Amino acid sequence: MMRSLRSRLIIGMLLGLATLLVAADTAIYMVQKHQLHRAFDETLASSANSLALLFHQGPWGPEFDITRAASLPAGQLRQDALFQFWSDQPIHLPPWRQTRTSAPREEEDTARSGPPPLPPDLLPFDWDNPYDLPPSLPDEWEPRGRRNTGRDTLVVRSPTLGEADLPRLETTPGKLSFARILLPDGTPGRAVGLRFQSPASMGPGPPRRIPAELTAVVAASTAAMDRELHFLVLLLAVTAIGTMAVSAGVAWLVVTRGLRPLSTVAHRIAAMDELGLKERIAPRDVPHEIEPVVNQLNGLLGRLDEAFERERALTADVAHELRTPAAEISTIAEITLSRSRGEDEYRQALGDTLESARSLQGLIEKLLTLARLESGHIKAQLDLIAMKPVLARQWSLVSGTAEQRRIVFDDQCPPDLMVTADPQLLEVVLSNALHNAVTYTPDDGRITVVGENGNSGCTLRIINTGCTLQKNDLVRVFDRFWRGDSARTKRTSLSCGLGLPLVRRAMEAVGGKADTDINADSRFVLTLTFGVENADE
Amino acid sequence: MRVLIVEDQAKLRTWLRKGLKEADFVVDATGDGNEGLWYAQNSPYDVIILDLMLPGLDGLSILRRLREQGRDDHVLLLTAKDTVADRVAGLNLGADDYLVKPFAFEELLARIRALVRRRYGKHSPVIEIGDLRIDTAKRRVWLREREIELRAMEYKLLEYLAQRAGETVSRTEIWEHLYDFGSETVSNVVDVYIGCLRRKLDRPDQNSLIQTRRGLGYVLGAES
Q: Which long-range contacts (CB under 8 A, 24 or more apart) does A388-392 make?
């Protein structure tokens, strides 16, 4: 589900870089394309304007001086410009002028002398007699635009067009309009259209009152520009891919190097087992970014180590506690069987064995209950229970021992004290608490039970006299198998060191808590605080 | 042979005491650490059986104090603690043996007897002095290949003298090894038992096996 951090980082970085490159390259391409188009259009417009200036109104209509077009500098007229001009008036040209729209024959050129020969694709023009007119228009003069009415009278077109036409563009007077077109040879091109009026007649001949309106289309192939743009796209793509490849390599190196401390930490963690829990990873060995992780990990290791230590100690304690009654049973049996004995001796042996077996059994039961409470296997069934009868019943179980040792039981529990608890767990709590109190109260001592109905729950205090513990021992009284004396207390047979741990766990299971305190006059106080019922829901 | 048991589990203590007494040991027993130390300091024990976890003073502390006072009593630690660290700690403090609960009583007896032999520099459980042969493991006595029936007290006395064969043993020493703390002092009880033993072991035509060193005590198997 979650990919490796390295690939995530690298992919993220590359995606970001790719987005950036695409955006930058698109911008570069758009700007470049715009500039190329504008320059292209400017040359087209300048060409159109320059060509338009070459018109004048001749005697038979607007005339175009194509030879001057040939001599226009490249700055004014694109060398590859194709053009075509139409007029809205019919044009009458004498036949010799009409023929001059085609390429001159070779012999005609060679026969001529005077002006230098023009390039073959341009029409030669008779500069000596520009208006070499007959006195009257002969009949065979055909108005050139007769077949074409209105604006469709073809005035001139660039010689390279041959007989092909450029498409007419929609134009408005005085305004240039640009369009993408397909040139007659099938290549894509760009064209500008303009409409203008030819200047009034200057030369001889019948003057034209109405100036002719001319429509022009000047076009040029965009193939070169497109090639340039294609090259730009190719260049941008290649550099982008190259950048991505190099970046991927660099990113892989950088990320791998950057993540090396992580893998070092991972190797050290992988090398740990439950025996290596004492090891810690020094935070100064790792980058700041993973220091919190390492700190948390060290904390976890510490807690695990403590837990393992506790478990080890507990296992040893459990073994120790179980061995003692087991040793008693086997020793009594072995010694008894070593010779034949009287009935009384056998009775004694069996009684002692039974007692040891019962203590073993009790220990196992307590251990099991504690283990179940700690693992959460016991689910408390909370109920409102009257404390007094339970207390009385549990006291009756230990009262025999208490009476033997002249311990006074002072029951100050109010009869109406109701607590929220699980009935069985409450029995466990009171049984162990009272047992503990009787065990640790010296002979002729006193055990007092005080109950209280508080706002935040009920409390029950079990107070016994003659406590030999110190205040700083209190933190340990809930530890399993801990007993007051570092070696052992006087009444070992009665205590197994599990009573108070059981009390606390059982209280926690019913939503309450158990606390201990020692009064100034050496009274040991066990306070049981029961939760409020609605607080448990 | 006199043994001290310091064990806080009352039933175990009682039954160990019973078992050891039935095996002809003289036994003192207590469940309290301080009391145990007092016993050990005030009587010569051949073997002290120490539990580790005791009220008052724990077993290792008792052992440490005894060794600090230069006492070389043979100590057997009897405990439910079974880790290597516990054993090493006990043995390093000067314990002579270590037995983990639960144990077989037979094994405990065998180990105690082994410790007794070590105390008197013997390796074999069988002691031979001249024609006299004592099997301390089986507690049987032979004289010139003939088994001799001895009462418990007589056997205890003979075994003690035999363990210290060749040495002069005072009446007090004998008494201390024949009776535990609860016993009433009877001034001539040792002499009475010596007399009983002589009647069973000696032949009229020979010198007594047990010779009297006037004012000092008795010696068994002296080269006289």
A: A388/A413, A388/A414, A388/A415, A388/A417, A390/A423, A390/A426, A390/A427, A390/A430, A391/A430, A391/A449, A391/A460
Of B57, B101, B105, which has the smallest distance from its Cβ to A324's Cβ?
A: B101
**Taken in order A277, A279, A283, A285, is the CA torsion positive or negative?**
negative
Count of CB atoms situated within 10 Å of the CB of A415: 9
For residues A2-12, one letter each, b for 16 or more C-beta atoms within 10 angstroms of the residue's C-beta and e for the rest, the string is eeeebeebbee
The domain segmentation of chain B, as residue ranges, is 2-119, 126-220
Topology of the domain comprising B126-220:
Arc Repressor Mutant, subunit A (1.10.10)
The per-residue pLDDT for range A386-428, each reduced to its tens digit, is 888 899 998 998 888 889 889 989 888 888 888 888 888 888 8
Q: Residue with structure tokens 């338009």?
A: A52
Q: Distance of CA A97 to CAs A131, A142, A232, Å?
A: 10, 12, 48
Interface residue of B6, B7, B9, B27 to substitute, partner A, most A CBs within 10 Å: B9
In chain B, residues with a C-beta closer than 8 Å to the C-beta of A334 are 19, 104-106
Classify burial at B88, counting beta carbons within 10 Å of its beta carbon; exposed 0-12, middle 13-18, buried 19 or more. exposed
Which residues on chain B are in Cβ contact (under 8 Å) with A329?
102
Name the band, by pLDDT with cuts 50, 70 and 90, for residue A61. low
Q: Which residues of B198-208 are buried (b: 16+ CB within 10 A; e: fewer)?
A: eeebeeeeeee
CA angle B102, B103, B108 (to 5 degrees): 145
| Top-level class of domain A378-536 | alpha beta
* Nearest CA among A454, A420, A451 for reference residue A533: A420
Instruction: Give the CA distances from residue A197 to residues A86, A158, A214, A346, in Å, rounded to whole numbers and listed in that order.
Output: 11, 20, 6, 147
Residue that has been written with the tokens 């060409």 in this structure: A47
Q: For residues B196 and B199, what is the distance between their CA atoms, to the nearest angstrom?
A: 5
Q: Please report the pLDDT score of residue A373 as a whole number.
A: 84
- How remote is the C-alpha of A512 from its chain's centroid? 44
| Nearest Cβ partner for B11 among A332, A334, A336 | A332
- Which CATH class, in words, describes the domain spanning B2-119? alpha beta
Asked whether the beta carbons of B78 and B51 are under 8 A apart, the reply is yes
Q: Which two tokens stand for residue A361?
A: 């059994």
Cβ contacts of A173 within 8 Å, gap of 6 or more: A195, A196, A197, A213
B139 or A209, greater pLDDT:
B139
DSSP lists the bridge partners of residue A180 as A190
Nearest to B104 among A326, A332, A334 (CB): A334
Q: How far is CA A395 from CA A411, A433, A453, A496, in A?
A: 10, 10, 21, 19
CA separation, residue B37 to residues A68, A528, B4 (Å): 139, 42, 10
CB contact under 8 A, A327 and B16: no
Rounded to whole angstroms, how far apart are CA atoms A43 and B59? 114
Interface of A with B (CB under 8 A): 316, 319-321, 323-324, 326-332, 334-336, 338-339, 349, 352, 355-356, 485-490, 492-493
Which residues, other chains included, contact A397 with Cβ-Cβ below 8 Å and sequence gap of 6+? A431, A434
DSSP 3-state of B45: coil
Looking at residue A109, its pLDDT comes to 45
**Per-residue pLDDT tens over the stretch A487-504:** 444 444 446 678 888 888
| Token duo for residue A495 | 């205590």
Per the CB < 8 Å rule, is A335 touching B8? no
What is the Cα–Cα distance from B197 to B193, expressed in whole angstroms? 6
- B147 burial via Cβ count (<10 Å: 0-12, 13-18, 19+): exposed
Distance, in angstroms, between B144 CA and closest chain A CA?
30
